[in-house]
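Running log. JK asked me to keep both predictions on one page so they can be read side by side. First protein, sequence followed by its tokens:
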Amino acid sequence: MSLLRNAPSTIFRLILIGTALSSVVPFAREALAGDWPQILGPGRDGQAVDESVSPWTTTPPIKWRVPCGAGYAGVAVSDGKVFLWYRADDQELLDCLSTEDGHLLWQAKFPAVYRGGVDADRGPRCVPLVGGEQVFVYGAAGDLSAVAIADGKTQWSRQLRTDYDAEDGYFGVGSTPLLVGSALIVPVGGSDRSGLVAVNIADGKTRWATVDQEASYASPVTMQIDGQTRVIAVLRLQTVMIDPETGNVLSEFPFGQRGPTVNAATPLVDSEKLFVTASYGVGCRMLDMTSNPPRNLWREGDVISSQYATPVLIDQWLYAITGREDFGTGELLCVRWSDGEVAWRRPDFQTAHLIGVGDRVLAQRVSGQLELFAADPKEFRSLAKTDLPEGTYRALPALSNGTIYCRRNVSPTQGELLAIELD
């Protein structure tokens, strides 16, 4: 069956998670141990810092659960607070919840104007971003807002997609902004060289706009080159490295395919090496970013072709999901970082979001299971498995202080956040 025939009912809804997805982001306030303050954790790389998960022998208990509306945005967790971003009727809502029992501390409300695309869900896709005393949210229609963590008051809002005449694309905004110093780097995909826009965190005013490219569903990351912080952004058809101070493009390379395709997995960084992956015949590339243009270290069309799940890197081995959920080809594999050599494959594993926890990997399957397996390049070893309540789990999970936060969708307008104790 062709991609175009599948698109309205299956393919494109898979990418709405906002990954949408590494280097530690310079926050105004240092993240506390165990915090999960942004997409894919403290380093935007799927690694749970200062966490440990032991194999469970009984079903992990649900500590608390709260209902929510539409959307595929995972939560952020910081300093005893959970930030849940969703849509209810004609509003996008940011709930600040207590990590202890899930009770509502405050709620911020914003008009919801996204009318939807090829997916019935019209909620936000981007994970909230915590920085200092603020939390930033990026709505499905491209409205960016800053909210005070102390009391939930909105400090400023910008209709960025409207300001820069950006189209909704297949299903609206799905790339989570990046905080670098006192600026947010936002994939906007607007006209007149506004593919990326930097705004001040204090007032939301534009610092610079750059790159003539549509936005993708992959989130930007930082890396260090010659002691300087650089931003890597995977866009619709190009990946760029920019100077976050000026927006100047320092290097770029083609990545992506024209037609009904997306780039959705967040790039991975290790020192000066960059790994990118996408499905739809794109494949994966490992590049040396010190060269200009960046130099391929290895490139494969069918080793890792991730439709949207971001791999995790542990001890120089990649643990990754390859294939497409809609085609039933979700496969787990272990690949050597240095050269792309496959150590082992686990067919029919299904599509899952992966979190690195020391020498183990925690997988949340989209179909609704948690599985813990060993990060062992010699063989696949499952350590524990449990079923989650019925639903679809496309939102990215968050792991903080022994609790995993899993968001399930039960309809295009209804969902639920589960806080599950693993420690």
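And the second, directly underneath as requested:
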Amino acid sequence: MNWAERIVSATGLAVTGGRKLAGGDLGGAALVELADGRKLVAKGGPLVEREADMLRAIAASGVPAPEVHHAADGLLLMDHVEADGAKGWDSLAEALHRLHAPRAATYGWDVDYAFGPLAIPNTPQDNWPEFWARHRLLCHGEKVDGSITARLEKLAKRLSELLPVSPPPALLHGDLWGGNVLFHQGKLAALIDPASYVGHREGDVAMLTLFDNPPDSFFDALDLEAGWRERLPIYRLWPLLVHLRLFGHSYRGSVVSALDALGA
């Protein structure tokens, strides 16, 4: 059964049009038009039900996310969100306050996730530096060259001195780069493509500032804990290691620079 047939089976409506959506390095999505005039985004893959749960968790926190209409048997159908790219940093800061509101939870998630072929382990832990060391740094050790592995091991031993042991547990988007933040008419329209887990909110800030440059007013509005800028290289190491493994040697220099900044 092809995608169109599966969408008909899931919605009870004929597919009258569609096109592939641009963006994303690891997975495809398509815009589909239904007979009743609605536009949905369709994604396929083995983890779409987990993505759907993350989108629902984000929406439940009061942050805009696409409404999920179907998530089963490798097919995800959700609302298409209009975006024009006109950034509204203030509205994103307000949304992150809601998303990151402290919750009674252990660090991690109830299931693992993945960026394409690269696993994201999320086994819950009560100690935040241990979670970050084990599931965001050391898990890459045997997959990268030995000199970086040794430096990651050295850094991991110091994380209890560099990171808070028990920061307020926050729901994180988990992959909060600019392409996953949709703006429309100067307001946040939706967060998409999450890789959510519970952790320290600075992890999302580090991801966002890896490729984007929000204004100072954005950080002022977030009212982050003292020392957050010094911790950013620790949290940036994870996406940099992910990029190194997925996209190759061109990211090695950025990984080394982050380790240099941390004295590892």
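Observation for JK regarding the second prediction: The chain has ten helices and eleven strands.
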